[in-house]
Amino acid sequence: MAETPPGMSASSVRAAHEIRVVVGRLRRRLRETYDMEGLTPTQTSVLSRLSKDGPSSASALAAAERVRPQSIALTLGVLDERGLIERRPDPDDGRRQLISVSVAGQAFLEDNRRAGEEWLARSLETGFTEDERQTVIEALALLDRLNAI
Question: N or C end of the chain: which has fewer CB within 10 A?
Answer without folding.
Answer: C
